[in-house]
Amino acid sequence: MKALYISGSPRKNSNTDYLLKITQSITGGEFIKLSDYKIEPCKSCRVCQKIGKCVIDDDMSNFIIPKLIEVDVIVIGSPVYFNNVSAQTKAFMDRTWCIRGKLRNKIGGAIVVGRRYGIESAITAINSFFLKHEMIVANRGVCGIAFDEGEIKKDTEAIDSARKLGERIKELEKMKG
Questions:
Q1: Between vectors from CA 47 to CA 65 and to CA 86, what angle results, nearest 5°?
Q2: Rg (CA), the chain
Q3: Which of 56, 123, 128, 146 is the most exposed place for a label (fewest CB within 10 A)?
Q4: 58: three-class secondary structure by DSSP
C-alpha cells in the first residue's frame, strides 16, 4: 500500500502534522507539507479539459500530482481557518481538477484541527473533495481540538481517532485486494 499524507498547515510542528503522523505510523507512507511547495491557485482557464493536464508549471503539476496518481491512499490534514480548510489545502484541492477520474477508488482520510468552531465544515470540505474524485472515504474523519503548538497532545480522543483511521485504511486496503 502506498500512502501519501498531505499537511495543509503552514506552521512547523503543527498540531495537524502531529495527528497525520500518528495515522502515518499505522500505515506507512510519505508525508508532505504543502507550505514547502510552490502551488499557484487554479486560474480556471479550463485548458486542462482539452489537453488532459494542468498548464501551470509549478510544484503541484511537477511533483504533487504525479504522487497523487501513483498512491493508493491520500490522507489530507488541515487546520481550521475561518470555518474551513486552510488556503494551502484549498489551493491544493482546486488544482486537482485536471486529474478528474484518476483518483477514483483510492482511499481518502481527513484530519482537521481547530478550536471548536468550523471543524465540521473543514471535514466536510475534505470529504467532499474525496467524493468529487469518486474516492473511498475511510471514515467520517478525525477532529482535533487545539490551537497552541503541542496542545493536541492533550486531546486523547483525537489521538485515538487518528490511530483508528490508520487501522480503517489498512482494513479498506485489504478489502480492495
A1: 45
A2: 15
A3: 128
A4: coil
Walk me through the domains of the chain, giving residue ranges and CATH numbers: 3-176 (3.40.50.360)
Phi-psi region at 102: left, alpha or beta (left = phi > 0; alpha = psi -120 to 50): alpha
**Contact criterion met (CB below 8 Å) for 79 and 115:** no
Whether this prediction's pTM lies above 0.90 is answered by: yes
Give the contacts of 150 (CB within 8 A, at least 6 positions apart): 13, 15, 18
- Cell numbers describing residue 33: 507539507
- Whether 108 and 141 have beta carbons less than 8 Å apart is answered as no
Residue of 39, 20, 38, 40 lying closest to 30 (CA atoms): 20
- pLDDT band of 177, cuts 50, 70, 90: confident
pLDDT tens for each residue of 78-131: 999 999 999 999 999 999 999 999 999 999 999 999 998 899 999 999 999 999
3-class secondary-structure state, position 137 = strand
